Every structure is written in structure tokens, then in C-alpha cells.
């Protein structure tokens, strides 16, 4: 069994900081940032926290799913992945359940950092396989600007804010899930409560270059598929150099690996659902497409999942 996308939505704060904005206080420039990351701008939320951004994305996803006849009362589960919750109790997911009127859904949040959307999607599919749920709303929402040290040019140039949501329904097609963690290497990317994010950029870069190709090959093997049979490979939008290196190592067709990092930056668990919504709104998701998603991030965590449209 796998999940089928029947609705997408996203929310991006109106405030946009391009690379030139950062030069007002950082010793950097647009060319330096673009060369190392591929990022030209990022959205910054001053007014809405992760919860409210998640709700806005969820409303749009449910509106889209409504075209297929699915309403809030048809949801069996709501999952929110975030590392920047603006409320601890109740969970953001429970707040969204209340606001949507999804009275038949159970709801909770998870934290798997930038791997969050892949992890929670795979979890939803596992629930589907047991027969516990049929329809799920999955949301990634992050206000990463709230945990940045804006004087640390090695990290603050990478991240942005936003939320993405996807409604998935159980599909009887073959599916596969892959998830891994390496807690012993967690110090490479961490943020203590009330503190600011710290990152060993080179260690994270090397980790991603090794693990992302491995996990893509692992999911293809489980699916018994050749890469040519996949319509799109959706990679966590962390760094354009990582994405380009994965394309090269796996021998993928670049047009099958869409990216929006130049306009969004790294939005952690929100990056994949934001990308999915963008593709959907642009008419690039057609019925029956085969998609492979891969995420990686703090924990350290990494994983991949298969999804269809």
C-alpha cells in the first residue's frame, strides 16, 4: 500500500529577505551565498508562528482535496512535523483539528527535523496498511528564523520560514518506506531549548552526500523499480550543491529533480510539501505519477518514501 496525493497547500510569509538584505549586517555578498548554496532569498515570518502558518497551509490543502469530494470530517489523522512549535501543549495538530472541524481525526506532532515530512508520511502509510486510517493531512511548518543566530553567516544564510500541507489517501498500489537515524552524530546540527541553532556545515554536507544517494537507491530496490520509471525525485531543499551532487551520483535526469531552494531557502520539514504544492499549482503533477521523496537532517536522520498522485 502507498499514499496518493489528493490535495496540497502552502503558506509563505509576505516578508522576503534577499541575499542583499543580509549584507546589511553580515560580511557576505549575493555571489558568495549563491555559489555555496544556490539560495537567492528566503521568506521570514514576523507575525505568524509555526502553528498559524500550518493552519493556513492546511486550509488550502483541504480546499484542494475538496475537489475530490473529501471534507474535514473524512480525515482520520492529522500529523504536523516541526522543530519550531509556538505552542507545546496542546499540539499544533490538535489545534488544527479543532480549527478545521476534523472531528473524526486523531492528531499529534513529531520532530524529525528536515526529515520530518518523509518520516511522518511513511508513518501515515504504515497506519494505512494496518487499516487504522484511510485519509491523512500531513503538514510541515517551520519558523526557523526564530532559532537563527543572525550573526553566524555559516548557518543563517541557509534557512527560511513557511508551511506546506498534503492530503493523502490510501492507495492499493505497492509502496515502500525507508528511515534511518544516527543519534551518535547528533551534535553536528543542534539547538538547545531557548538557544540558537549550531551546525557543523562540512559534516552535515558530507553526511548528505553519502546518505541521500544511498537512501534513494534503497527505496528503488524495495520498490523493484529502475530510476527511469520514476517521474519525479523530490529531495529536501537544503543546499543546491547537495541536490546537484545527488543528481550526478545517481545519474538522474536533472529535469526529474525539481527545486525551489533559490526562492525559499531551507525550510526544514516544510520544504517537501511546499515543493509539492508548487508543482501541483503549476499543473506539473499528473494523475498516476510515481514520486520518490528523500529527506535528511538533524538527529541525524534520513529517509525516503514512495508516493503517487
Overall helicity:
25-40%
What Rg is obtained from the alpha carbons, in whole angstroms? 18 Å
- Kindly report how far apart the N and C termini lie: 13 Å
Low-confidence stretches: none
SSE order in H/E notation?
A: EEHHEHEHEHEHEEEEHEHHHEE
Number of helices: 10
Care to count the β-strands?
13
Descriptive account of the structure:
This protein is of the alpha/beta class and 309 residues long. The protein has helices at residues 19-22, 30-37, 50-65, 92-100, 116-130, 153-156, 201-223, 240-250, 261-264, 271-281, and strands at residues 2-11, 16-18, 41-43, 77-81, 106-110, 135-143, 161-171, 177-181, 189-190, 198-199, 232-235, 290-297, 301-308. It has ten helices and 13 strands. Helix 3 crosses helix 4 and helix 7 crosses helix 8 (240-250). The strands form three sheets. Strands 1, 4, 5, 6, 7, 8, 11, 12 and 13 form a nine-stranded mixed β-sheet that branches. The chain has a two-stranded antiparallel sheet with strand order 2-3. A two-stranded antiparallel ribbon has the order 9-10.
